[in-house]
Automatic annotation (TrEMBL):
Protein name per UniProt: Iron ABC transporter permease
Homology family: Belongs to the binding-protein-dependent transport system permease family. FecCD subfamily.
Alphabetically ordered keywords of this record: Cell membrane, Membrane, Transmembrane, Transmembrane helix, Transport
Record organism: Metaplanococcus flavidus
Record-annotated membrane-spanning stretches: 62-82, 94-113, 119-137, 144-168, 276-298, 304-323, 343-368, 388-409, 416-436, 442-464, 471-491, 520-537, 561-589, 601-625, 631-649
Keyword Membrane: yes
Organism phylogeny: Bacteria, Bacillati, Bacillota, Bacilli, Bacillales
Keyword Transmembrane helix: yes
Compartment annotation: Cell membrane
Membrane protein topology class: Multi-pass membrane protein
Length: 653
């Protein structure tokens, strides 16, 4: 047995080094200055054009790719052990997003500081996001809970990053390419900084290999064997965070390497953390250099971010891992909460309607600079009134989507954004802009519909045989959402269009909505509200659990299919009107459930009103906060809703 492990290790190391050497030779020949491998091997030793290009530009890029790929892979391997979660990585836990946000923040407000110490700000962001994951996921580190927590934290930081990029477009214009993950280096500065930090941290991780072997047996066993579990976990978290922060500060947030490389190594039969970490470093380097080579082969002469290629490769891999993880876990029936003493609708509805009328009156009358109570004037009637009405209808639709998806998946954190519908809708819309750059913005909903339908198709295809196990659908949604978000980031860089306008639509905005949009929203709402109301009784039955619901004669598979179709259709309709707005479908049903209980018909009514109120409020705040400029309502909703959502995560058992 020991001989077999040695043979597998030898094959993995030999094959990895050979592949890395071959890819490195190809990598050094790629770029606008064209020369062959033979010219490279002969010309690099003497002074001249080839040596100058290789030494000053291409070799630093290759070196930083090897270092970053290895660091991300080792960080992912450590995080997977610490969280007992095969889906864990710096990208899926929100660590990369947190590090990137803090770098963007420092670039805007402390440009002198971040210019000299990008690592410090990235490290601070990585630490903050990691602490949020640990605190909110709880001691049990349930894989689904960890994955959902990481995704929501990534959504939070991405929303705040988008807000900063919109508000300070000039200051952050140079960060769009870097924000997608690029290995471009203009000198050796990045390598000189990253190499010692990564090598020292990697050595520290190797010293933790044996303690992590013991820790993987379980905390109780590790403690009984005399291990200081808390110290080992703290040291391991520290090394993983430092490795992730170092890569973000040098090459930007690159995803999926930390997810894929450790799994590939384990699939080769490598066992024991010492061997896994060494092999993961090698294969992480191979994968990142290979992605950079592939990106420049696909589009020679243009800079396709390495993070773009890792996303395209890693998205399907994440889908596979999510499917495998959910299959290996027991079906859980998560409690949805709700008050034991629901308030009557005849008390709740008038309060909500009154609040909506008050906020709408303010939105009609105030533009952030002056008041205008003549609502029939052109500026109010033609611009503000339809904008507010559109926001209200879309808010209702998003909240209803949240009620349906949370009910059918038995998951209080389910929402169109968690299922990947929102992010894939945004990616589909941007894809349309890239393929047809001259297409009018009015056709963006077609792309959004295509992307959202693709997300639904993947979920239906993968979950059908498993009777739409809620855990499986939730994890598949996380994978789809991660892929859609990565694809969106790639397309923003690739499109070479007005990035600000693309970000506005992707962030969700009711800007410049007219009466045609109100009409479209009303038609779509009228079309989908009846099937949504019709399935409420089936959703009520599902609250008792699958076994009881089946015993009562409910066709569980059919119910889940139709509920998913209806929920995704309503969400797609909302996305097609105002772009990608998240959090409404997460927050509104939770607030309503604490008021009216878990019965779905009153829950749907109160959630819809709360969702409409939230989006109208967010739109009003976004319009007046920096008047006469606008902040997209989706970003305001994220900033308002996230603290409440994080509070729910902490309380949820």
């Amino acid at each position: 047995m020991h001989g077999k492990l040695k043979a597998k290790s030898f094959v993995s190391l030999t094959g990895g080094f050979f592949l890395l050497f071959a890819l490195s030779l190809i990598h050094l020949t790629q770029g606008q200055a064209d020369y062959s491998i033979s010219e490279l091997l002969s010309g690099v030793w003497g002074e001249g054009r080839i040596q100058d290009i290789v030494v000053s530009l291409r070799l630093p890029r290759l070196a930083v790719g090897i270092l970053a790929g290895g660091a991300l892979a080792v960080s992912g391997a450590v995080l997977q052990t610490l969280t007992n979660n095969p889906l864990a990585s710096p990208g899926t836990l929100g660590i990369n997003a947190g590090a990137f946000f803090f770098v963007v923040l420092s670039t805007i407000f402390f440009p002198g500081f971040v210019g000299g110490f990008p690592f410090a700000t990235a490290l601070l962001g990585a630490v903050v996001s990691s602490l949020l994951v640990v605190v909110l996921a709880g001691k049990q580190m349930d894989p689904v809970r960890v994955a959902l927590t990481g995704m929501i934290i990534a959504l939070l930081f991405s929303s705040m990053t988008g807000t900063m990029q919109l508000l300070f477009e000039n200051e952050t214009s140079g960060l769009f390419l870097w924000g997608s993950g690029t290995l471009v280096q203009l000198n050796w500065t990045g390598v000189q900084f990253a190499a010692p930090v990564i090598f020292v941290t990697f050595a520290a991780v190797l010293l933790l290999a044996k303690p992590m072997d013991i820790l993987s047996l379980g905390e109780d066993i590790a403690s009984s064997l005399g291990q200081n579990v808390r110290l080992v976990k703290l040291a391991a978290w520290g090394t993983a965070i430092v490795l992730a922060a170092t890569t973000v500060s040098v090459v930007g947030p690159i995803g999926f390497i930390g997810l894929m490389a450790p799994h590939i190594v384990r699939m080769m039969g490598i066992r024991g953390h010492l061997q896994i970490l060494i092999h993961a470093f090698l294969w992480g380097s191979v994968m990142l250099i290979g992605a950079d080579v592939l990106g420049r082969l696909v589009q020679p002469g243009q800079e396709v971010p390495a993070g773009a290629m890792t996303a395209l490769i890693g998205g399907p891999w994440l889908l596979y891992l999510a499917w495998k993880t959910a299959k290996s876990m027991k079906r859980g029936e998560r409690q949805m909460g709700g008050t034991p003493k629901p308030v009557r609708l005849k008390m709740i509805v008038p309060i909500l309607v009154g609040s909506i009328l008050v906020v709408s009156t303010l939105a009609f009358s105030y533009n952030g600079l002056s008041w205008n109570f003549n609502w029939l004037s052109a500026v109010v009637w033609d611009f503000r009134v339809p904008r507010v009405l559109t926001a209200f209808i879309v808010g209702v639709m998003l909240a209803i989507t949240g009620v349906i998806l949370q009910g059918v998946l038995r998951n209080p954190l389910a929402d169109a954004s968690v299922l990947g519908v929102t992010s894939m809708g945004g990616a589909g819309a941007l894809l349309l802009l890239v393929v047809f750059p001259a297409i009018p913005p009015a056709f963006l909903p077609l792309g959004a519909t295509f992307g959202a339908s693709l997300a639904l198709g993947i979920i239906l295809l993968t979950a059908w045989k498993n009777n739409f196990q809620p855990m499986l659908v939730a994890l598949m949604g996380i994978a789809i959402s991660a892929f859609g978000s990565a694809a969106t980031q790639i397309l923003v860089v690739k499109a070479k269009l007005a990035v600000a306008s693309a970000l506005v639509w992707l962030s969700g905005s009711t800007y410049a909505k007219g009466w045609d949009d109100v009409q479209l929203a009303l038609i779509l709402f009228a079309l989908f509200i009846w099937p949504a109301v019709y399935i409420t009784r089936s959703l009520d039955t599902l609250t008792f659990g699958d076994d009881v619901a089946g015993g009562l004669g409910l066709n569980i598979r059919s119910t889940r299919v139709w509920a998913l179709v209806v929920g995704v259709a309503i969400s797609t309709a909302a996305v097609s009107i105002v772009g990608t707005i998240g959090f409404i479908g997460l927050v509104a049903p939770h607030i309503a459930r604490r008021l009216v209980g878990f019965r779905h018909l009153p829950l749907m009514l109160s959630s819809g009103l709360i969702g409409g109120l939230l989006l109208v409020t967010a739109d009003f705040i976004g319009r007046i906060l920096i008047a006469p400029n606008d902040i997209p309502s989706g970003l305001i909703v994220a900033l308002i809703g996230t603290p409440y959502l994080l509070y729910l995560l902490k309380k949820m058992k």
